[in-house]
Automatic annotation (TrEMBL):
UniProt family annotation: Belongs to the sigma-70 factor family. ECF subfamily.
NCBIfam families xref list: PRK09636.1, sigma70-ECF, SigX4
Protein's recorded name: RNA polymerase sigma-70 factor
Subunit structure: Interacts transiently with the RNA polymerase catalytic core formed by RpoA, RpoB, RpoC and RpoZ (2 alpha, 1 beta, 1 beta' and 1 omega subunit) to form the RNA polymerase holoenzyme that can initiate transcription.
InterPro entries xref list: ECF_Sigma-70_Domain (IPR052704), NTF2-like_dom_sf (IPR032710), RNA_pol_sigma-70_dom (IPR014284), RNA_pol_sigma-70_ECF (IPR014303), RNA_pol_sigma70_r2 (IPR007627), RNA_pol_sigma70_r4_t2 (IPR013249), RNA_pol_sigma_r2 (IPR013325), RNA_pol_sigma_r3/r4-like (IPR013324)
Gene3D superfamilies named in the record: 1.10.1740.10, 3.10.450.50, Winged helix-like DNA-binding domain superfamily/Winged helix DNA-binding domain
Domain RNA polymerase sigma-70 region: 9-73
One Pfam family this sequence matches: Sigma70_r4_2
């Protein structure tokens, strides 16, 4: 099948992939893809000649994402606490060979590094380095010259190389360590946790002011091991369980209340045989695409009530 007669609907996964990496939010990426298809339908109805459906849809998606990102940056300046991307489940991939590359460009660490780029730099880098578009096509999409697009990509790579951390553990090694880590959390085993954490391990939490969460990063083996041993104790008392899943290409877990509703998501970065970073997303607005979401404040209120004397 040639690019000219490729069905527009078949391009939906590609368009979502571009939009999600640009924005780091599932709901906004889905909205942008939907708007892209509406514009495509209007263009066809108006008799617009579209030589390449793929090029047209990619361009519209990217431009909409750039515009959205410019306004999103203003909103993020007033965001309560730490901002993290919306978690995306990735353990159902049917392409093991392409998993490593996909996992790298979907990881929360990578998406957070992209936040350092301006919207056009981000678009140029993603389109060329991640999705394989030629500089001539990238230039048409972002409205820059080909030479300028090359310069933007080079500058983006320099920023990224200064910030990106290499995660050399295999997928199996990451999963095995994650299984042991979450088991130790469930058991509240501080000694086991200490043995799995990097010396400079750091924990980030995103509650967005809508659910209780750590407002600042928590750093160091001692603090993090005791924190998660306590988290495990509270989970046992409240009947909360964890279901291991791969999230944004990294090992993680969905945390579920006794009714099976999602309370939060944990995602781990693993390197050199240790857990380097732990990210927790508990903002309910960032979890709704994953299923029914629990009222964490209500769960904690009930828990405190059961613990109250008398």
């Amino acid at each position: 099948m040639t690019e000219l007669d490729e069905p527009a609907e078949a391009l939906r996964p590609l368009l979502f992939s571009i939009a999600y990496r640009m924005l780091g939010t599932v709901s906004d990426a889905e909205d942008i893809v939907q708007e892209t298809y509406l514009r495509h339908q209007r263009a066809l109805a108006e008799g617009t000649r579209i030589e390449s459906t793929r090029a047209y849809l990619s361009a519209v998606t990217t431009r909409l994402a750039i515009d959205h990102l410019r306004s999103a940056r203003v909103r993020r300046e007033s965001y309560v606490g730490q901002w993290l991307p919306e978690p995306l489940l990735t353990d159902d991939t049917e392409d093991p060979a392409g998993h490593a590359e996909q996992a790298d460009s979907l990881s929360m660490a990578f998406l957070l590094v992209l936040e350092r780029l301006n919207p056009v730099e981000r678009a140029v880098f993603l389109l060329h380095d991640v999705f394989g578009y030629g500089y001539d096509e990238v230039a048409r999409i972002v409205g820059k010259s080909e030479a300028n697009s090359r310069q933007l990509a080079t500058r983006a790579r320099r920023h990224l190389e200064e910030s990106r951390r290499r995660f050399d553990a295999s997928r199996q090694e990451q999963q095995e360590l994650a299984q042991r880590f979450f088991a130790a959390v469930t058991d509240g085993d501080v000694d086991q946790l200490v043995g799995m954490l990097a010396a400079d391990v750091v924990v980030h939490g995103d509650g967005g002011g809508k659910a209780p969460q750590w407002m600042e990063p928590i750093v160091g083996v001692d603090k993090v091991s005791r924190l998660f041993a306590n988290v495990g104790r509270q989970m046992r008392e409240m009947g909360i369980t964890m279901r291991l899943r791969e999230i944004n290409g990294r090992p993680g877990a969905l945390v579920l209340d006794p009714d099976g509703k999602i309370t939060n998501v944990f995602v781990l970065d693993v390197a050199d045989g240790a857990v380097q970073t732990i990210r927790s997303v508990i903002n309910p607005d960032k979890l709704r695409h994953l299923g029914p979401v629990a009222d964490v404040r209500e769960l904690m209120r009930r828990h405190r009530g059961r613990q109250a004397p008398g």
